[in-house]
């Protein structure tokens, strides 16, 4: 244990309260903090590692990812919602909290707010007396599980949105959520900030200009600190404590990762839905859940790069979690538990090239105490530690942690293992120009930054009794709190589950046979290849498919272009059907939401219609003049 003759509370107070750390035994001062340091809440938050996101509201019932704002509250009626059951599921999987979408962009408030009448009191659920925020927050309290909330700044229902009048509504909502439901560990202000919407019937496009100015986030942040000083603020135009990881795929956009923005400590949170279909539950989604081994990749490229992970698991129309989602969540949870269950470096003996003083000796790396740390002498320009394990062991994951209370310092590190009477480099030091993005470097990646923690999965297992850690580049004297050796478990297969009996029966995509396509390149939207697409140089633009025989058509799916570009992504559509190719019946019209951040397949269902011809019109598209679709599937019998 670090500084065993002083209490941990005192040590903590010393470490976080001042810029100096003291070793109690030999009274040697630790190094001064370097650069921005995290607040106590940010430290606590980073140690949560991962928690659940819960998207649940009117979109659950309409199948939209972004509601327009004119949806009827009458749709919200989850017959089997049991907040406690959901919280227990998350906790059992090893998650460390949950964040619920109290209001999404459609403006529907799932608590009885006084700020707008577009709220849950207008829903039939519990006779208009329901309060989802209350039920989740109570269940969390009961199970000692941190509760957080998401409040969309963009409100497509409110007639005053974009004008000063909306701010009163929005501020009231923040105040209610932060004063009526007990401690909120994190409040999320989404970055989607405006566009078209219902806006009290105006049905127009609204532009709020500079979001930071419009919402006055400087003041919002001050108010939140007054209401709940321990609440982590996500977003708020960079004024919060945490920012977006940069993708909705679950990885933080790049490693090396620095928790620094200007002169402030800002941590990164990677977000992703457990299901490939999007943030809200969608009918027939069961087959599209991410596999546990993919979730491990997500974990390694978020938490393992020094950020946190928020993983969305969305309740269905009944208010229950989808059994297939839960099965995958549990299987990944089990893999994570196994990974972290044993640290083979624990109680290893460390011999350092130098130490700042006894209280910062190399033994601190392997004492299992996240607060104590090894620190070399400032004059030591290539500090290293040899660690002798209690016995020879086999591992394939190395975890390192910095004492972040003193700031983030390490730029690159190297790890060698003593194998066959020689040092063998098992983690090469990174070069700041070699940036890992996406899911790169999950296996065999280099040693760049450390921060709260870095997890490096080796290309193959290593068996040894002796290792050497070298800090090859650091902005200031490194302060390393942990060196751990872990073992990646085999894939845990999800339990096979019955799909939820209440779900409507799955329709299948129609099989293409002899179909004729009218419209240049439109056949490319039906060729089963994500990399090719229907493209038109204008918008609106449309094409027709002749299915050669009548079918009972009940829906379609749209996959936006997958090449990383957004130009011409169809964002609003109209679908019409016809028996003869002359007389058309409009069966669906609407929006494909959230394409920029999460360009996944979206499925649209409608009441079945007998038809032979399918007409798709792109009525609005993102960026540029054109229209496109990578893949379209037609559902029916
Ligand atoms: C995005 C939103 O637009 C999505 O709908 C979702 O809520 C995601 C977590 O954040 O910005």
Poorly predicted regions are 1-26
Content of β-strand? 25-35%
Radius of gyration computed on alpha carbons: 27 Å
> What class would the helix/strand composition place it in?
alpha+beta
Q: How many E-type strands?
A: 29
Helix run count: 10
Summarize the biggest pleated sheet: 8 strands, parallel
Average the pLDDT over all residues and give the rounded result. Answer: 93
Strand order of the largest sheet: 7-4-3-2-1-13-12-8
Shape: globular
Distance between the ends: 67 Å
Summarize the amount of helix as a percent range.
10-25%
Bound molecule kinds, no repeats: beta-L-fucopyranose
Topology:
Layout: H1 8-17, H2 40-46, E1 50-54, H3 59-62, H4 83-92, E2 98-103, H5 132-142, E3 147-151, H6 164-179, E4 186-189, E5 195-197, E6 204-206, H7 211-215, H8 217-227, E7 232-235, E8 242-244, E9 254-255, E10 260-261, E11 264-265, E12 267-273, H9 292-300, E13 308-312, H10 323-341, E14 349-352, E15 384-402, E16 410-419, E17 422-427, E18 436-437, E19 454-474, E20 480-486, E21 508-509, E22 516-518, E23 534-536, E24 541-559, E25 570-578, E26 585-591, E27 602-621, E28 627-629, E29 631-636
Parallel strand pairs: 1-2, 1-13, 2-3, 3-4, 4-7, 8-12, 12-13
Antiparallel strand pairs: 5-6, 9-18, 10-11, 14-15, 15-19, 15-20, 16-17, 16-19, 21-29, 22-24, 23-28, 24-27, 24-29, 25-26, 25-27
List keywords for this structure.
30% strand, seven-stranded antiparallel sheet, globular, 637 residues, eight-stranded parallel sheet, binds beta-L-fucopyranose, 29 strands, alpha+beta
